[in-house]
Specification:
The protein is α+β, with helices and mostly antiparallel strands. It folds into 2 domains: about 1-85; about 110-335, 2-Layer Sandwich (BirA Bifunctional Protein, domain 2), CATH 3.30.930. The protein is built from 11 helices and 10 strands. It has helices at about 1-15, 20-35, 40-45, 50-90, 110-120, 135-140, 170-180, 220-235, 290-295, 310-320, 330-335; strands at about 125, 135, 160, 165, 185-195, 205-215, 240-250, 250-260, 280-285, 305-310. The strands form 2 sheets. Strands 1-5-6-10-9-8-7 form a 7-stranded mixed sheet, with helices on both faces. It has a 3-stranded antiparallel sheet with strand order 2-4-3. Strand 3 and strand 4 form a beta hairpin. Helix 5 crosses helix 10. The radius of gyration is 43 Å and the shape is rod-shaped. Bound molecules: phenylalanine. Phenylalanine binds near residues 169 and 211.
Length: about 350
């Protein structure tokens, strides 16, 4: 019987040498200490042993069990403490380069519209919107452009059916706002407009405008100039110059076209400004009394100014973009630069 116990001890010593992982140690535990393990096998022989030897055999098995338990638990402890930091190291290797998460951005035209809104918000302007599908009344008649007016061709228009059209200018929103509100009025109106132009580097059948309208008592052309100057200096930079040229719009009188010193060449002359040093960015003027008549405002009491600018155009000037089509192609190589 004692031979049995010695054999078990020797075998265990050999097997311990083969343990290299936590799994090996666990398996050894099952082999020796499990329900059908070697120790339990020895226990089962106890009743068959002559009674005078039984007690001492039992004691020896018990001390063997304690000894084996200690050895195996020690092994388990050793390998589990080794395994944990090893696994941690594999998961959190702080020396590996990180992955760049993909971050979405606003479209450059949306950014420009947001920038414009911010500048005018500081000057007390609210933001207003109007429909893109319009009637002739809002796109033309109320803006002092009757059916036979020669300037209708300047605002060439997509017709959906008789008297239903895609607006060719955001000036429609002037009328919609003044119909609903009494002065004082101070709004900007960003949005899409449509004109049947052939698409090329400078033209598109759809583009964006921001309209501005201010109506109150005693508003003068000097106020218009002051507001536009403030906008241009804030948006393009303090060094950019502004100039006004006399022009004509049916809904403003007097009217002006507003140029800025070319932001690409700094006014020295380049292909963008046709070597003039100036580029046109918007149309503006004092609201024509006929427009006030259409919305039942007292033209004796109120005066106001309006302006309209092309969003694509000012974005192209600010960032030196030479082809309007880039805005609509959704090419990530272009869009991710803004
Ligand atoms: N609606 C004009 C255009 O599209 C711009 C403009 C707006 C001019 C307001 C004067 C006043 O060209």
């Amino acid at each position: 019987m004692m031979k049995h116990i010695e054999e078990v001890k020797n075998n265990l010593q050999d097997e311990i040498k083969l343990v290299t992982t936590l799994k090996d140690a666990d398996q050894l535990k099952i082999k020796y200490l499990g329900r059908k393990g070697i120790i339990n096998d020895l226990m089962r022989i106890i009743p068959t042993i002559p009674s005078d030897q039984r007690a001492s055999f039992g004691q020896q098995i018990n001390s063997l069990k304690v000894e084996i338990t200690n050895i195996i638990e020690e092994l388990i402890k050793k390998f589990s403490s080794e395994t944990v930091p090893k696994a941690k190291k594999e998961i959190f290797d702080v020396t590996l380069p990180g992955k760049h998460p993909f971050v979405g951005k606003r479209h450059p035209l949306t950014q420009t519209i947001d920038d414009i809104k911010e500048v005018f918000a500081r000057l007390g302007f609210d933001v207003a919107y109007g429909p893109e599908v319009e009637s002739e009344y809002y796109n033309f008649e109320a803006l002092n452009i009757p059916a036979d007016h020669p300037s209708r061709t300047d605002f060439d228009t997509f017709y959906i059916k008789n008297d239903v059209l895609l607006r060719s200018q955001t000036s429609t929103v002037q009328i919609r706002i003044m119909e609903k509100q009494k002065p004082p009025i101070r709004i900007i109106a960003p949005g899409r407009v449509y004109r049947p132009d052939t698409v090329d580097a400078r033209h598109s059948f759809m583009f964006h405008q921001v309209e501005g309208l201010l109506v109150d008592e005693g508003v003068s052309f000097a106020d218009l100039k002051g507001v536009l100057n403030q906008f241009i200096k804030t948006y393009f930079g303090q060094n950019v110059q502004m100039r006004l040229r006399p022009s004509f719009f049916p809904f403003t009188e007097p009217s002006a076209e507003v140029d800025i010193s070319c932001s690409i060449c700094g006014g020295n002359g380049c292909s963008v400004c046709s070597y003039s040093g100036w580029v046109e960015i918007l149309g503006a003027g004092m609201v024509d009394p006929n427009v006030f008549k259409a919305v039942h405002y007292d033209a004796e009491k109120y005066t106001g100014f309006a302006f309209g600018m092309g969003v694509e155009r000012i974005t192209m000037l600010k960032y030196g973009i030479n082809d309007i089509r880039l805005f609509y192609e959704n090419d990530m190589r272009f869009l991710s630069q803004f």
